[in-house]
Amino acid sequence: MLRIFLALLLLLGLQRTDASHWSYPDRDLDEVFPSWGGICDTGTLQSPIDLSITKSLKGVFDELKLDNFEDKQSGVTVVNNGHSIQLANFNNEMEVEGGPLRDEYVVEQVHLHWWSEHTINNVRYPLEAHIVSRNKRYANVTMASNFKDGLTVIAVLYHVSNERNEAIDQIVDYLDDVKDFDKINEPVRMKNPFVVRQLFPKLNGYMTYSGSLTTPSCAEAVTWIVLSETFPVTLEQVDNFKQIQNEEKITLKNNYRDLQKANNRPVIVVLPLDKSVSDAASPLQLSMGTLFFMLIAAKLL
Ligand SMILES: *[C@@H]1O[C@H](CO)[C@@H](O)[C@H](O)[C@H]1NC(C)=O
Ligand SMILES: [Zn+2]
Predict the structure, then answer these.
(1) I need a surface site. Which of 81, 91, 126, 222 has the fewest CB within 10 A?
(2) Residues 150-208 pLDDT 10s
(3) What class does CATH assign to 25-300?
């Protein structure tokens, strides 16, 4: 009896202290979003948030520069970390600088959320990629997450299309190898080179704000750069990610965090310098168009 009691105590203790055991709710069952603890619950600069053109401030910055994103990266690894599918181990260093950033950042990893974490004008997208970069001032991501300027994440949103996304397909090809719970944290090397630039469309403006990691520790260390132009993906492609298992052997149907309070944070919208027409959809430009139309209509009436 005492032994069982002690075992139970130990189990409870482990659950309390092991911060790696956090999860997403099953949205099909209307489960409430779990409390992740710490700054995730108490922070005031949390992410994701809804991005709205009518609540944004216009900004003009130096050009946002993405260096070596076109490089063919060989030996890139794909891993199921129990919460997402992540790419890492880039052999050619990629850098992000300019735009709202004061320093140079180096790309550490890329991972995906199905469905999107950020919404634009309250519209959710089927998939969101996060390209996570570390300020070179800090030795590693753990160190960087202690500082407000420690990290920058470029977020790419994908819209539903009949057109398969080739870059996403290159990741889907490895899902069977990593999806089962007993493969968690076992990286698989990609056989073909991977070009990170192929994950997103033409740089056509972005929205930027100060926020947090959207997974525990939820560190408030992130300059978010959400590209305003979205890229196509099929729902069938996204469904492949919903087969991923977490540590509890439960399929990860969705891995997006609930929207967080904006707390009157400035969201800065940076419009593209080059206004040439493009095939991809830009919710930002659409809403700007709608806004202007409404303003004109309001003047006329
Ligand atoms: C990160 O860098 C700090 C300072 O150099 C070091 O103490 C720490 O062990 C590093 N952490 C990881 C996870 O590499
Ligand atoms: Zn993420």
Answers:
(1) 91
(2) 999 999 999 999 999 999 999 999 999 999 999 999 999 999 999 999 999 999 999 99
(3) alpha beta
Residue 165, C-beta contacts closer than 8 angstroms, at least 6 positions apart:
158, 231, 232, 233, 234, 237
- The residue type found at 46 is Q
Give tens-digit pLDDT for 6-15: 454 444 444 4
**In a mutational test of the pocket of ligand 1, which residue from 137, 138, 143 has the highest number of ligand atoms less than 8 Å from its CB?**
143
Predicted local confidence at residue 24, as pLDDT = 96
Q: Is the CB of 146 under 6 A from ligand 1?
A: no
d(C-alpha 270, C-alpha 39), whole Å: 29
Helix, strand, coil abundance in the chain, percent, nearest 5: 25, 25, 50
Residue nearest to atom 13 of ligand 1 (CA): 142
Judge contact between 51 and 118, C-beta under 8 A. yes
Do residues 189 and 261 lie in contact, with contact meaning Cβ atoms separated by under 8 Å? no
Closest ligand to Cα 145? 1
Separation of 94 CA from ligand 2 center, angstroms? 18
> What is the 3 CA–ligand 2 centroid distance (Å)?
42
| Ligand 1 in reach of 143 Cβ (< 6 A) | yes
Sorting pLDDT into bands at 50, 70 and 90, what band is 270? very high
Contacts of 183 (CB under 8 A, 6+ apart): 80, 177
Q: Give the Å distance between the CA of 129 and the centre of ligand 2.
A: 7
